[in-house]
Amino acid sequence: MNATPATPASPSRIGYARVSTDDQNLDLQRDALKASGCATIYEEHASGKNTERPELSHCLKALRAGDTLVVWRLDRLGRSLQDLVRIVGELESRGIGFESLTERIEASSTTGKLVFHLFAALAEFERNLIRERTFAGLKAARARGRKGGRPPKLDARQVREIRALLKDPHVRVIDVAKRYKISRATLYKHVGSVVPVREG
């Protein structure tokens, strides 16, 4: 008996909606996505700066070749221009379409591809600007005699003072840390372990 081959699933339009906080309403995005033909919508309450977006992860995993990811607006998907370009590029490599309703962009169309090529160029431009500013800042700091990175919280004189204080068995580490407005971890990082001197 010959088995009947399974009918391949038809392409789906899957929506993704996001608001920044729990007190914002998803109704506007939800209604627009449903009107555009999305039967399934993944909904997220998370800041655009938040790297943890579990519903977006579930949504991206659910998409199959031929499907289309639909968002109400571009900033609902990407945390930044670079993030947006990266996500859409990954979708394209998997054979998945992308559409943004507000901007009327379809990544699979000729115009949509042109827009995202422009976005990619802008993202690269932004990365180069940040890199140049960082290098310029480090060069200026070196010219003033400082190395890159955060300045130390304690200078050499303060380290000597703390070591002298901690040699007194009646002085508590937490009190010394408060006095210098640092954490105990920072204190130990700069001073190390100091054994109190006990009078015999």
UniProtKB/TrEMBL annotation:
InterPro entries hit by this protein: Homeodomain-like_sf, Recombinase_CS, Resolv_N, Resolvase-like_N_sf, Resolvase_HTH_dom, SSR_resolvase
- The residues annotated as the active site are 20 (o-(5'-phospho-dna)-serine intermediate)
Residues in Resolvase/invertase-type recombinase catalytic domain copies: 12-145
Write the record's keywords in alphabetical order, separated by commas: DNA integration, DNA invertase, DNA recombination, DNA-binding
One example of a Gene Ontology biological process annotation = DNA integration
Please give the superkingdom of this protein's source: Bacteria
Q: Does the keyword Glycoprotein apply?
A: no
Do the record's keywords include Aminoacyl-tRNA synthetase?
A: no
Pfam families membership: HTH_7, Resolvase
What terms describe the molecular function in GO for this protein? DNA binding; DNA strand exchange activity
Name the protein family: Belongs to the site-specific recombinase resolvase family.
What's this protein's name?
Answer: Recombinase family protein
Provide the species name.
Igneacidithiobacillus copahuensis
